[in-house]
């Protein structure tokens, strides 16, 4: 019996070969040796399939970040590690598998706004969790942790948003990130 996971695995393989613009449900079905109707029993439409592929990829990105957000590291170390890990994950995926990274970027642009907002909300809530613990332990001087989490996430967009992928190959990108994060730390740390 064909599983959703098998379809998603096959879809990733087919996307890697043909890219998102040329990949069809028929291609995925052919790769699985089933009819396209079988794929449609699991996904109502091609856009539902694309959403599932992209959500799975986003979940892979956020899993290590959740581990960091909930770790026992002191909040100041945890906050920096969270952002460094987000940047490193994105850069590694873009360099190690550029075809899939480009495919996911294109697919994500076609997602319903709700899916994108849910993903961003998860990430921003993780940052907020770290800030709240830092505020409670009197490490951070932050009035509104939810607002600050959102601000920090969007202030660091250059280092994790796919629109900036061409900049990530810069020899100075890590140094630039460190300068920005030093400013962030100075702004939020309790004096």
Write the layout of secondary structure elements.
Layout: H1 4-18, H2 25-32, H3 36-42, H4 46-69, H5 75-96, H6 98-109, H7 113-136, H8 145-155, H9 173-188
Helix pairs in contact: 1-2, 2-3, 4-5, 4-7, 5-6, 5-7, 7-8
Describe the structure.
The chain is an all-alpha fold and 191 residues long. The protein folds into two domains: 1-43, Orthogonal Bundle (Arc Repressor Mutant, subunit A), CATH 1.10.10.60; 46-188, Tetracycline Repressor, domain 2 (Orthogonal Bundle), CATH 1.10.357. Helices cover 73% and strands 0% of the residues. It contains nine helices and no strands. Helix 4 runs antiparallel to helix 5 and helix 5 runs antiparallel to helix 7. The model has no long low-confidence stretch (mean pLDDT 90).
What are its keywords?
single chain, Tetracycline Repressor, domain 2, 191 residues, 9 helices, mainly alpha, 2 domains, Arc Repressor Mutant, subunit A, elongated
In short:
Helix content is 73%, strand content 0%.
Q: What's the assembly state of these chains?
A: single chain
In DSSP terms, counting alpha (H) and pi (I) runs of 4 or more, how many helices?
Answer: 9
Report the average pLDDT across residues. 90
Structural class: mainly alpha
CATH fold-type name of the largest domain: Tetracycline Repressor, domain 2
Main β sheet profile:
none
Return Rg in Å.
19 Å
Number of domains: 2
Low-confidence stretches: none
Name the CATH superfamily assignment of the largest domain: Tetracycline Repressor, domain 2
Q: What's the level 1 CATH class of the largest domain? A: Mainly Alpha
Helix proportion: over 70%
Name of the CATH architecture of the largest domain: Orthogonal Bundle
How far do the termini sit from each other? 61 Å
Please provide the ordered H/E string of secondary-structure elements: HHHHHHHHH
